[in-house]
Amino acid sequence: MTAVQAKAEVFLTAFGALPRAEQNAVLFGLIHNARLREDIIDLTIAETRNCQSSRPLKIFLTGLRKEKNS
User: Fold this and answer.
1) CA torsion 51→55→56→60, rounded to 10°?
2) Could you give the CA distance from residue 15 to residue 30 in angstroms, rounded to a whole number?
3) Is-contact 23 15, C-beta < 8 A?
4) 40 CB contacts (<8 Å, ≥6 apart)?
5) Which of 3, 11, 37, 41 is the most exposed place for a label (fewest CB within 10 A)?
6) Computed from CA positions of residues 39, 45, 50, 55, in that sequence, does the dihedral angle turn out positive or negative?
7) 51 — phi, psi (to 5°)?
8) Residues 2-32: pLDDT tens digits?
């Protein structure tokens, strides 16, 4: 476990031990910060798409150009 992972684990353990109202206060604080909210959205999308198949960028761009020229 890296130092970053260890710190995250400590934070998550402490967060989980908070009463529900305090957990909600932390979460609301996170989403009311525009930069953090964008990071949370990006991470959520990435995690959701993690198991989707992918294709190389060159192949995607080739397909995109073909659609544009059609």
Assistant:
1) -130
2) 13
3) yes
4) 30, 31
5) 3
6) negative
7) -95, 5
8) 999 999 999 999 999 999 999 999 999 999 9
So where are the chain's domains? 3-69
Q: What is the largest CA-CA distance in the chain?
A: 58
Burial 28-64 (b: 16+ CB within 10 A, else e): eeeeeeeeeeeeeeeeeeeeeeeeeeeeeeeeeeeee
Please give the single-letter amino acid code of residue 33: N
Going by C-alpha positions, the residue among 8, 44, 37, 45 that lies closest to residue 16 is 8
Verdict on whether the full-model pTM lies above 0.85: no
Structure-token pair, residue 18:
């908070």
Please give the angle made by the CA atoms of 45, 51 and 53, to the nearest 5 degrees. 105
d(CA 42, CA 50): 12
Nearest 5°: phi and psi at 28? Answer: -65, -40
